[in-house]
Design a protein that fits this description.
With about 150 residues, this protein is mainly alpha-helical. About 55% of the residues lie in helices and about 5% in strands. The chain has one domain: Cytochrome c-like domain (Cytochrome Bc1 Complex, Chain D, domain 2), CATH 1.10.760. α2 packs across α6. The chain is globular.
């Protein structure tokens, strides 16, 4: 009986460990604090933003009427702890409001790079991808993680 109980506890711990490992593997590997876009992307994104997005969201990204803010506390309250892929999908499929879906994936990544830069996230050496699977591995975080 004692051996059976030990085996059951061991199996339970192993199953719990497997579940934790799977959850860890599914969590985004990086955050926007890791320099996930380049300064050049952000500069190109600024031009696109000013031409396609600023009319509704404002040059300072403070939003207006039906357009939500894309900077500051309100933006971070909506998007913190969300993978960049979800933000990408929202923009790609619904923006600009007067011509939804007209931006290419690369253009959406440029706009996101600019929005991240505007929100004081650091630029890095690697470009922000336009592949949703890769973007799913990057999490938007309001607070800078310890050690970053």
């Amino acid at each position: 009986m004692k051996k059976l109980m030990i085996a059951a506890v061991s199996l339970g711990l192993a199953a719990g460990g497997t579940a934790l490992t799977q959850a860890w593997a599914q969590a985004p590997a990086r955050t926007v604090w890791d320099g996930v876009f380049t300064a050049d992307q952000a500069a190109q994104g600024k031009v696109l933003f000013n031409n396609k997005c600023a009319i509704c969201h404002g040059a300072e990204m403070n939003g207006a009427e039906m357009a939500p803010p894309l900077a500051g506390g309100a933006f971070l309250a909506n998007w913190s702890n969300v993978p960049v892929a979800e933000f990408f999908t929202r923009i790609h499929s619904t923006m600009p409001a007067n011509d939804p879906g007209s931006l290419s994936g690369q253009e959406v990544s440029l706009v996101i790079a600019y929005i991240l830069s505007f929100n004081q996230y650091p630029a890095g050496t690697a470009t922000l991808p336009s592949d949703e699977a890769a973007l799913a591995q990057i999490n938007i975080l309001a607070e800078k993680p310890a050690g970053k």
